[in-house]
Design brief:
Blueprint: E1 5-10, E2 13-17, E3 22-25, E4 58-60, H1 71-76, E5 83-86, H2 92-99, E6 105-108, E7 114-115, E8 121-126, E9 135-141, E10 144-148, H3 156-166, E11 172-176, H4 191-216, E12 220-224, H5 251-261, E13 275-277, E14 283-284, H6 298-311, H7 313-321, H8 330-341, H9 346-352, E15 354-361, E16 366-373, E17 376-380, E18 390-395, H10 396-403, H11 409-415, E19 419-422, E20 427-428, H12 429-437, H13 440-451, E21 458-463, E22 466-471, H14 481-484, E23 485-488, E24 491-494, E25 499-502, E26 511-512, E27 518-519, H15 522-527
Parallel strand pairs: 3-4, 4-5, 5-6, 10-11, 11-12, 15-18, 20-26
Antiparallel strand pairs: 1-2, 1-13, 2-3, 7-8, 8-9, 9-10, 13-14, 15-16, 16-17, 18-19, 21-22, 22-27, 23-24, 24-25
Helix pairs in contact: 8-10, 9-12
């Protein structure tokens, strides 16, 4: 084998070659895209899809999202190639892999090492809160190391442990700096409000990554994975680069941000096929991209995406064909499915406590209200008359895929093939968690994690000229507020997920979430 090398595959995909192994990490190259034919890698990475790329010894996949878990590609690999995945409370990844004929599945616990050679290895670093099943992957390659964060929001302490595990500073650190959210892009806001919210989320993500990089000081940083592109006519105008702002910054914007804030940090973005030599961290550019530039402007971006969409027209049409208009009984199928969700977790139901309205368009649609409370879920298929806290509007063909088991809820939400509104306009993580997991073991893990938090563990933040003591860990996902908490206009914002807390009452201001503990300076004096 040749010299140790990291090859960018587009989106978050990497190929890592050591002196005795060949590894694919989260490869996404199949031409069908992901999430009901709505997401595609940007830029087009199809020139890499060749037998020599897939001639590897192992594949590691960080989580179940289909822009990372490329089922078509994995199904085509030689059967003896192991697929390495993290252990999560849910076994959905194992089940999906077995369904495509993959039987060599290696499930790793956090920090457990999987040997690649006698001295090289990989391990997985799951997010601390089990509400999100995301993991980073750490690979030891000779005397070099690669921390591939994927979509995981790993903590500073986890990143520091990664450095300890490899015996020194990290050499290459791939960082995810683009969001993957349907909020606010599919919400019924006016353009000014939509961009205001998008800016907060985009900047919050950038700041969180910048803090981590500044503290860890890897030898080389590579921003990746964002944005996906949207080639279906129905979604095309959501693409980044067609107008300023938005929630999906591209790799160039992410790199410029890091360059402005940490000018001493060596960093670059890689296009699909570009490579990093691990020996000296030099970059070998793929000649495929001669004449291509991310910053060529909106007209050139539109031209490129339009041509890309034409090449993927059959894949988009296939996604629609795979989800035909529903037959009779859609309302009954929806009612049975959604009421079954109410049997999974009393803990989640109590923290949702709302009515979710579904406006289902097309044949056999209607207005259906799901009343979610601590005693269960009751669906009224003659809904629409009372107040609804959430309202989701979608074509029945996409909803039928969920209630019949073709599609998971989070795949539908990430497809952006719906619109939404909230009243009051507050995020409820438990509703999203119930839908995206729909798994009793996964929901129980969240309940156990939240029950184990110590509200008396505090950290100090500065408000004006005074110190205030607040809960050490964010009640949402357990982020360490000593690392991720910032005070903005008298409000504590957790950069992990942009939850905001009133520093007088502790109440969460923008989501359904338990409050933080807030104590004044006398608390520290009394504790002495």
């Amino acid at each position: 084998m040749g010299e140790p090398m990291v090859t960018a595959l587009g989106h978050a995909g990497l190929r890592i070659d050591g002196e005795g192994f060949r590894l694919l990490a989260d490869p996404w190259l199949s031409p069908g895209g992901a999430f009901l034919g709505s997401w595609f890698p940007f830029p087009d990475n199809s020139h890499l899809l060749a037998p020599e790329l897939l001639d590897v010894d192992a594949v590691v996949v960080s989580h179940e999202h289909l822009d990372h878990l490329d089922l078509d590609l994995l199904a085509a690999l030689a059967p003896e190639i192991p697929i390495v995945i993290p252990r999560y409370p849910s076994t959905i990844m194992q089940r999906r892999l077995r369904a495509i004929g993959r039987h060599r599945i290696v499930v790793l616990d956090a920090w457990q090492r999987y040997p690649l050679t006698g001295t090289d290895w990989l391990t997985v670093i799951p997010e601390q809160c089990p509400m999100s099943h995301d993991s980073a992957v750490l690979v030891k390659v000779g005397d070099r190391s690669v921390l591939h964060t994927n979509d995981a929001r790993i903590s500073l302490s986890q990143a520091r442990r990664a450095s300890t595990e490899v015996g020194g500073p990290l050499d290459v650190m791939g960082v995810q700096m683009s969001g993957a959210s349907w909020h606010p892009v599919r919400y019924e806001y006016d353009e000014v409000e939509r961009e205001r919210i998008a800016t907060i989320k985009r900047v919050g993500k950038f700041k969180a990554v910048t803090r981590l990089v500044r503290q860890i000081e890897p030898r080389f940083v590579m921003p990746y994975a964002g944005p996906p592109c949207f080639l279906d006519d129905d979604l095309f105008e959501l693409n980044s680069g067609l107008s300023p702002g938005g929630i999906f910054p591209d790799q160039g914007e992410a790199l410029a941000w890091l360059g402005d804030r940490i000018p001493s940090q060596a960093a670059a973005y890689l296009l699909p096929g570009d490579r990093i030599r691990l020996a000296d961290l030099s970059i070998v550019h793929d000649p495929h991209w001669a004449g291509f530039a991310l910053d060529s402007g909106p007209q050139e971006r539109r031209r490129y995406l339009s041509a890309y969409a034409a090449r993927r027209r059959r894949a988009i049409e296939a996604a629609w064909a795979a989800n035909p208009e529903p037959g009779p009984g859609l309302a009954d199928r929806f009612k049975a499915h959604f009421e079954s969700l109410g049997t999974l977790s009393e803990y989640f139901l109590a923290r949702i406590g709302m009515t979710v309205r579904f406006v289902v368009e097309g044949p056999y649609g209607g207005v259906w209200d799901a009343h979610i409370g601590p005693d269960g879920v009751v669906v009224d298929v003659d809904g629409g008359s009372g107040h609804a806290d959430y309202c989701l509007t979608m074509d029945g063909r996409w909803l039928d895929g969920v209630v019949t088991g073709r599609t998971r809820w989070e795949e539908l939400l990430l497809s952006l093939r719906f619109t939404a509104r909230r009243d009051p306009d507050r995020y409820n993580d438990y509703l999203v968690g119930l839908l995206k997991h729909a798994d009793r073991a996964a929901l129980r893990a969240v309940e156990a994690f939240e029950a184990a938090r110590d509200p008396e563990d505090t950290t100090a933040v500065t408000v004006g000229s005074e110190q205030v003591y607040v809960s050490r860990y964010c009640p949402h996902a357990g982020e360490d507020l000593a690392e991720t908490g910032v005070v903005v206009n008298g409000v504590l914002r957790c950069l992990g997920h942009n939850f905001e807390f009133d520093l007088t009452t502790g109440a969460c201001l923008n989501a359904r979430c338990d409050p933080i503990v807030v104590k004044d300076a006398t608390y520290a004096e009394e504790a002495v």
